[in-house]
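Quick log. Single chain, no ligands specified.
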Amino acid sequence: EGRDGPLLISVLFFERQSYVDGALRNLLAFTLPTTSIVVHLAADSDARLRNASRIVVNPERARMCSSYGMVTRQHASNIRFAASTGVAFEHVALLASSSRLFVGGGVLERYVATHGFSAIADRARSLKELRRYDGFDGWAGAWWSSISNGTQTHLSFAQHEGSFYPRAAALAFADWVLQ
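-> predicted structure:
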């Protein structure tokens, strides 16, 4: 069972301002007040945001394109930026800009805290088994197995959106991606 604590949601937007505003209203309405949202706005998005209560805006505005690992890279950048600015979190959930929540009251946060790590491809393997690996290799390997189809030699592109990870795994993977 995972640790209970604040959740960080990482979300990337390339859409127009009105779309971004609606998506953020949805996330704020259906998450707990302890949940923070770190946002990346693509370089070609017309959207403009400022940090506000639970929303932290990553100042890096990279061009988003599919099939080059930019989604993975920008989620990693969001995670690292949130940690560097002191945002409190125990887990990170990666969401697509098209993700919408329909149930609030802490359902998402409780699910993440209960399950801890969505990257366990074979549910017979428990989080306890993964924790036997000390350090980066165990977490990175588990993350890689969650986003790889087994034949790729490069990072997967968006198969990981909707997944969630403990803070230690997310930070280790972010450091690896951004090195």
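Residues 2 and 116 are 4 Å apart (CA to CA).
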